[in-house]
Design a protein that fits this description.
binds flavin-adenine dinucleotide, globular, 11 strands, two-stranded antiparallel sheet, alpha+beta, 564 residues, seven-stranded mixed sheet, 19 helices, single chain
């Protein structure tokens, strides 16, 4: 099996669905011409196909281990990461003044997708480093930026995010880690963090931890949290890794998947840290990193789906049972569902990336609102698609899907975490119907207006595709109206997950319709649009019924009535 990076499909989505071309009209991204975009996508694709993909299975079979306090990574990972760093791919969107390429986040998102198809466990290391660069760029002092950004962007050093503690998961505000001023502008950080991705490694350089902790005068909850840079080695006067800081990896988790990614329990014992941003404003700074990472995790869902699809298709062409199984109706149904949903998820993730880029390039409120609306949808839907598609990939393989050697199961195990970390998909859905609807549904309705307007223009050429998309918009609009009229937040939350999926289903229909229109109604993309709109889009109807069912029946059960 080989992996083929979807350069052509990503380029098609950029040009015909996600509106990447608008970026070239902004001053910030005026230089991102077609030639440059093509060269970057092809360079990323070649690296992932030739260098990263061959390490995928080794990472699964030989997990990272902790030996005498030192993390040893899986075979081939050190060399593969060095190739990523040498190519300048760690932070292609990093600011140019610190050595980055200053390219749109949409291109970093393409890289994160390809990295995941080829080796998700390894891809997490640059993904977290990218998020850290963005948080530092926006919130750190000039001294911290000058010291850390060039080294993180070049891949010489790597970055982590330290939020989670045993008692503080989704409820980050419950964290207990403490930061005490040392009197010299630095702070002593003490506490234990769990589940820290790439908390340590043997790649050399430095591991830079962004840690959330509470200052002595920090109030309880999220409002009293501050953010600190806590490096593994304290940089010396020349900015090189100096003495070891007072922190260590206590243990590594044994996980269901992404075995090659060291997930660490970290202990900070008065470790030296530097404040990033203002005291008590740590959550705002960390949100920059988390939003970036949420989009990155959405891209992981797409990447896993693409990898699983390619593997399943290849197997289905070769496997003979009453002839090649690819010719059986049910196998075709599975494969085409996988392909149609992967395209929808890729389109939504890329549209979100372009909205974030447009917001950064123009500062316009409408782009900020669009990006904020799309982020939870992109994260939740694309990761659900990754999980569904990988699961169907196992089914296409029959018994061989359950046997580890084919690698189909690895995609399924690896991608499962994407619905959990960076805010579970339940938390994303609550964000959509809660914070993102505080505007009375304005941003949602603006997007629905756009989809309807596009469906209207498409109606003459393709009525059988445009009409169902238009109708779906009307149903979605009614659900938005119902949601914003609910003052009891639990009533909204009870239906938030089906609502988020319904919204994504409709957006997926819009993206497929755009693709069919761009193709002129004939060809593989138009056939796939027809498949999606006829078979997958109708799911939004039952999802919206579910979304508006309220919370009363959920709470009508006593705990005894819920079973033993
Ligand atoms: C492999 C891996 C890597 C990770 N990497 C990192 C990392 O690098 N840095 C880091 O800081 N953390 C990391 N995490 C932690 C991850 O972000 C958390 O696991 C996640 O945020 C969920 O927290 P939790 O596990 O405590 O689950 P809980 O918060 O206990 O949630 C359990 C369930 O309850 C639901 N729930 C919780 N609160 C609510 C609510 N208010 N309303 C409705 N439902 C709710 C959740 O959706 C979930 O279904 C990682 C975790 C894993 C497993």
């Amino acid at each position: 099996m080989t992996y083929r990076a979807q350069v052509e499909d990503i380029r098609f989505v950029f040009d015909n669905v996600a509106g990447f071309g608008q970026l070239r009209d902004t001053e910030k991204y005026a230089e991102t011409g077609e030639d440059l975009t093509d060269a970057v996508l092809e360079g990323m694709g070649k690296l992932c196909e030739e260098v990263i993909y061959p390490t995928q299975r080794d990472g699964d079979l030989n997990p990272a281990v902790l030996e005498n306090g030192v993390v040893r990574t899986s075979p081939g990972f050190k060399e593969a990461f060095a190739a990523i760093a040498e190519g300048g791919w760690v932070a292609v969107s990093g600011p140019e003044e610190y050595g980055g390429m200053g390219l749109p986040l949409a291109l970093t998102t393409a890289f994160n997708e390809m990295m995941t198809s080829s080796n998700m466990a390894l891809g997490l290391c640059p993904l977290l480093t990218q998020g850290q660069c963005e948080a530092l760029e926006h919130h750190a002092s000039d001294e911290i930026k000058a010291l850390y950004l060039p080294k993180l962007i070049s891949g010489e050093w790597t970055g982590t995010m330290n939020l989670t503690e045993p008692q503080a998961g989704s409820d980050v505000g419950a964290l207990k880690s403490k930061a005490v001023p040392n009197g010299d502008g630095t702070y002593a950080i003490t506490g234990q963090k769990i589940f820290i991705t790439w908390g340590d490694h043997d790649f050399g350089g430095n591991v830079c931890h962004l840690v959330l902790a509470r200052l002595p005068d920090g109030v309880a909850g999220t409002k009293g949290i501050s953010l600190f840079m806590v490096p593994k080695y304290i940089p010396d006067a020349d900015g090189n890794p100096g003495v070891a800081n007072d922190l260590k990896v206590v243990s590594l988790e044994h996980k269901m998947g992404i075995h090659g990614s060291p997930t660490a329990v970290m202990q900070f014992d008065g470790a030296k840290g530097w404040l990033v941003g203002e005291p008590h404003k740590g959550m705002a700074a960390m949100f920059t990193m988390m939003n970036n990472a949420r989009l990155g995790v959405g891209a992981q869902g797409v990447g896993a789906a693409e990898g699983a699809y390619q593997k399943a298709l290849e197997y289905a062409k070769e496997r003979q049972q009453f002839g090649p199984i690819v010719n059986h109706a049910d196998v075709r149904r599975m494969l085409l569902s996988m392909r149609a949903d992967t395209f929808a998820a890729r389109s939504i993730v890329m549209s979100c990336a372009v909205a974030l880029d447009m917001a950064a390039a123009t500062g316009a409120e409408n782009w900020k609102a669009r990006a904020a609306l799309l982020t939870p949808i992109a994260k939740a839907f694309a990761t659900d698609v990754g999980i569904d598609v990988a699961e169907q990939g196992v089914q296409v393989h029959g018994g061989m899907g359950f046997i580890e050697e084919t690698g189909a199961a690895q995609f399924s195990r690896d991608v499962r975490i994407t619905a959990i970390y960076e805010g579970t998909n339940g938390i994303q859905a609550m964000d959509l119907v809660g914070r993102k609807m505080m505007d009375g549904g304005e941003a949602a309705n603006e997007l629905i207006d756009e989809i309807e307007a596009h469906a209207e223009t498409a109606r003459a050429a393709m009525p059988e595709l445009a009409e169902p998309v238009w109708q779906a918009c009307e149903s979605l609009r009614e659900a938005v109206e119902w949601l914003v009229s609910q003052t009891d937040m639990n009533t909204r939350f009870a239906g938030s997950v089906p609502f988020t999926r319904a919204f994504a289903r409709v957006l997926g229909g819009h993206c497929h319709l755009k693709a069919a229109m761009a193709e002129g109604g004939e060809g593989a993309r138009s056939k796939l649009a027809r498949f999606y709109i006829r078979r997958l889009l109708p799911e939004h109807e039952s999802l919206l019924v579910y979304a508006m069912a309220g919370a009363d029946d959920l709470y009508s059960f006593s705990l005894d009535e819920m079973g033993a």
